[in-house]
Amino acid sequence: MSDSDLNVDAGRARSTVGRLSAGSLSLPIGATLLALTVPGLLVLDLANGLLGEGQGIPALPVTPGELGRTVLLFAGAVTLLQLRGPFFLPLQRWVVALLGLGLLGPLTAFASTSDTAVFLHDIEKLFKALYGPLIIAIFLAIYLRYRVRFETVLTMISAWGAIASLNVVLFKYAGVGVATYGKWSSAFKGLFLAQNELGLGMTISLAASSYLALDRPRPRRFIVALATIVGMLILGTRTATLGSIVVPLIVLFTYRGDRVYRRAGRRRIIVGAGVILALVFAGNQLSQRLRTESYQAKKYQRLVSGEFTRVLLLAGAFQYAGERPLTADLIGDGAHRYESGVADALPFKEGRALAEVDWMDLYGAHGVLFTIALYAFYLWLLVRLIPIDRIHGKGAKWTLVLMTGIYLTHATLAGHALASPLPTGIIAPVLAYGWWASRAQRLAFQRRRTTTEVR
What we know:
Layout: H1 3-6, H2 10-21, H3 28-37, H4 42-51, H5 64-82, H6 89-113, H7 116-129, H8 131-145, H9 150-174, E1 178-179, E2 188-190, H10 195-215, H11 219-235, H12 238-256, H13 259-263, H14 266-292, H15 294-304, H16 311-323, H17 326-331, H18 335-345, H19 358-384, H20 389-392, H21 394-414, H22 421-454
Helix pairs in contact: 2-22, 4-5, 5-8, 6-7, 6-19, 8-22, 9-10, 9-11, 9-22, 10-11, 10-12, 10-14, 10-21, 10-22, 11-12, 11-14, 12-14, 12-21, 16-18, 18-19, 19-21, 19-22, 21-22
């Protein structure tokens, strides 16, 4: 597909954004592609659980999730290589810069060890961190090629949370799967393997569900949001439990200041606010039992007291980083060497270990330059979400900012996000939409100014 077939000029982009904001229907192909690449990937995660962690597909050294997301990753790379134009060039420059910085550590380690297996492990970890920038190109291509409206994007993200929650609930009562924290808690994750990433994804999805339930209150939207909350509380992670109550309230607060909200009829205002408050009440009631368990109560007490999660793992990571040369601090020394060094610094770990916090693990494996660049990339896209209020209102803008903020905060304080494909696959369509919409507005403004000057 050529650039002229896919890209749009400023005038067409502006008119497309205008039609989407007016509520035009999405083309079936665009909506189908989003369904396959957002909630559709849950099939891969369930397949991982059915096969068991680390077993993979017979005769293949990968799991279904790794295989499917690797295909998406390469599809994103091909998209960036083939397409040009004002929508893709900035993204291409970011990816090239990140790839160049990220390769320095693995190449340096390979030059000293010549171990191919270690080098491949380092490359695998690097591309997990690059998964987000690469698949954003796929969503950007979908938005440019098909008329996918804003509501459809949020609907697919909310569907991800509802489907994941439904599976957790069904597995819980069917007795299929495993508990989130073993025998210490009634929390349950079913067949899903990564409970923290799953809880983060559900929390991001709940923000989309809450906005949709408030924007146009309908019974099915309330059911989707409530189902997500129930699944989050059964999952039982701190992010999911706190998010089930806090996220709907934040969405209500930010939406209340929107001009669309002020112009809405009294019935819509009352119903929308009632829906959100009902969700908060339901979440609070459902979480009472979970929070009174001794194991969970201790976790929340540590959280309230300000104790940083995974403090012992961080201590081991800092000890290892403090003993390596300055060059390794700048460019990293590869994921394998870093993980082995952290495990050696911890008396209760063997083999390889991580700090389980993105910024530290990225810094340890790929250096401070790559870590700063990756955070800068996501902050750059976060800023591009701000002009979206001119199309969809301030409530929509702050909901998208909230979703991105949850993602980045979790990466910084609570665990993995930037280097985890599961939650990254949920936030990527949001960031791609913000970039597309803001860029289209800017190009349209430049076109109008040029036309005025010519006249």
